[in-house]
């Protein structure tokens, strides 16, 4: 996370460019011995090269799904394919190409960060022992932990632990990264750095599945999104398609006296769902209306029409629908409900 | 490449089948040898009881080494206290005890009683004997006085065996059969296997119906005619023998010299015991004393204060003027005044052995345990004294200093005492 | 490291067509298992808690030796459990006496801690999931963990033996060895026999290691696995004292532990020693298989 933030949005791979998915599950189900169904018949499809936001409140089955993807938990039924190989049957073959951060970082508390990385590297039968040191240093450098590499893990702050977890996932070049709640415990700066790292990796062609219960943190980097709720995969697809399902809304702020005129003019423009909020302290009112990108008038046309109708426009804003809006629409409940 | 999806359930079942198989395999591995060992003994020619007994008595003593398990179920009070100490002959009174035996078939032998992290050894080279207790690091050396030794040497090449004996099947079996035809019937039971060797079984059943001894079964090796196992059955338990001494493994080969010699270890305490040789007259009267028992106790001259009532299996030995309290206190003078009854006692063999165990303490108890406590544990108060009742032997200690013992019920002893 | 270091072009459209970064097919490097074993041993033997345990065990012969040295001219000299009374005469016995005193409880306690922690410790720290996704095969990881626990058990026994030998030789000197049978063997033979005792005690702990490993796969709470392992050893010793259970005594985990005394008899019985080791092998096979079945099928949710 030494590089600076880039403003550019991540590139979206063409849907037709992928011949097979990086992650694919078929009717994946996990019923625990307690009888609780944590994951119920989900068909996950993560295209190669995608940054897949795996979203859902805590307890919605994200982590159990991730554990099944990595062969830690055996599915009750259904199949998993990682990079085209069945898991857990071919886990030994495919997992070296997969970096993972599962449910927070975990290391031996009495070993230093560097020693912990060296241990994980030693466990990997497919790495070259001669380059072990180089790999560990590169990974530490990449997450900005070089200075603290010799401190015991137990003395690390939450953010440093998270960074070490990322360093472990990046110990070697990966085709797929599975990052479960990578921003947990990070301050806003750290969160930005993680987002940047994800973009950087994606630009290099790595497929990233990143899970979070905080929509806003990930929304900006995702090319694809899957939304979990109560063990079901409620929705998945390219992010733009998901949010396009719901219309953007235009918000016009006008003095209270002109509110009725604004409503009338917007209706005249054939916009739907025109409503006016109540007046606020500065004496203005916000009038809402739904706009459709393809057929409706452009925002500048709306402004012009309002001005022509002598409606004083204090402010005008187009609000794109957020994933949270989509989620609330799908589930009828707030995102953090299960917290 | 494994392309067939493995359903988790069958995978789990297959995995747990492994420990299940492991349990069965391990169980079988430990259970199988004993089962195989009880293989058939077909092909052994049949022998007549008389012939068998003669063979045993005439057989050359064999050089051998082996492990002996001695199991006593005498119905005595729990002696678990005794087990706490190291290897000690008292443990022979109850439960199972393991001994190791080495003999060159002639005069030299070593018998070791094994305890947990301890050992009680008895070594004899023919003219002298040593016992060594690892718990006390104490050696007891038995030897004839120099004059006696010279006399014994002059008399015969086979001098008397000193008394430091631990029971072995070979000795016990031979002694039992020697007396077999006296007041008893002898028959041959089905052949068996002992310590992996084919063995004939001789059954000695006392004709008397009042004795506690039901029968004695001696298993005799079919090749060397060495007794391999002796079982003494009490008359009131037909399920398990009251006393069983048998080899669990045996090799007929001369043991190494180092095993049969004894050198007092540095630092050990040594106690010298001089064994008196009977006077010339006694030796002359008995061709074969005292390496074996006299043919009939009645033939032996009884020491003063010892009387024997009844004959054969019903014999009751009575010793008078025994200071029990002093004996229990380990008073040497009391020990010295104890009449030499060891070789004169004439009950069944098991009873004789038991008696040896008790009275053997007259040589100076190797028992660390509080002897008085042991005495109290073993005996029960009766009118006029205390009595010990086991399934093979009864002992009655009267307050007037008389001690009666025999392979008969306590009531019989009391009747004799009262007579 | 930057994206430029990777082989794939940064053009997203090409991501699928061109081999992605790290798409080199993973190959096993030679010596991978040895590397894994070294890493595990470094972890087990480098851990401060384990070192403290070893030092604690090593203190037993040291303290015992010093106490016996100070008491040797008093009225208390020559008393005590088997072997202890012999130490002042021959320092070699300090090794045997220390093992005799440690075998019933201290040694099982130490080994229970190490083996109970093997898997459960990783599970409770959360590191187990990261080891498994590295990936390392579960059977392989279990085997390496078992090896680590066995090496620790050996280190525990050796700590007692080596310190016992050094302290015993320094305080009391060594010489010809008087056996339990009363025979005396030359020093070289004596050292061999004591080495045999040490080896037998070490091998006698293998069954307990397997039991601990099994418990360790059952839970994410290491202290639970440790306690259960120690309890097994203690319960086994208690059952061994009950004459009513004589039939099962030979199969008990602890029944043959003191058969190391066989090494100190005039003719050590190979049968007795083999029987003791066979029972340990039985426990190792059964509990090793149980641990394997459990660990290779269990969901890792820690």
Structure description:
The complex is a heterotrimer of chains A (339), B (419) and C (302). Chain A has 339 residues and is an alpha/beta fold. Chain A folds into two domains: 15-244, Rossmann fold (3-Layer(aba) Sandwich), CATH 3.40.50; 248-320, Alpha-Beta Plaits. Chain A is 30% helix and 26% strand. In chain A, the strands form three sheets. A six-stranded mixed beta sheet of chain A has the order 7-8-9-4-10-11, with helices on both faces. In chain A, strands 1, 2, 3, 5 and 6 form a five-stranded antiparallel beta sheet that branches. Chain A has a four-stranded antiparallel beta sheet with strand order 13-14-12-15, covered by helices on one side. The longest helix of chain A is centred in the middle third of the chain and has 16 residues, at 188-203. The radius of gyration of chain A is 24 Å and the shape is elongated. Chain A starts with 20 loop residues before the first strand and ends in an 8-residue tail after the last helix. Mean pLDDT of chain A is 84; it is low at 1-19. Chain B has two domains: 49-260, Lipoprotein localisation LolA/LolB/LppX (outer membrane lipoprotein receptor (LolB), chain A), CATH 2.50.20.10; 285-418, no CATH class. Mean pLDDT of chain B is 75; it is low at 1-5, 80-84, 286-299 and 340-369. Chain B starts with 7 loop residues before the first helix and ends with a helix. In chain B, 27% of the residues lie in helices and 30% in strands. A twelve-stranded mixed beta sheet of chain B has the order 7-8-9-10-11-1-2-3-4-5-6-12. A six-stranded antiparallel beta sheet of chain B has the order 13-14-18-17-16-15. Chain C has one domain (36-297). Chain C has helices at 32-46, 48-71, 92-102, 106-125, 127-132, 138-172, 187-204, 206-218, 222-241, 270-297, and strands spanning 177-178, 184-185. Chain C has a two-stranded antiparallel sheet with strand order 1-2. In chain C, a hairpin with a 5-residue loop joins strand 1 and strand 2 (184-185). Mean pLDDT of chain C is 89; it is low at 1-23. The chains are: A alpha/beta (339), B alpha+beta (419), C mainly alpha (302). Chains in contact: A-B, A-C, B-C. Chains A and C meet through helix 2, helix 3, helix 4 and helix 6 of A and helix 1 and helix 5 of C.
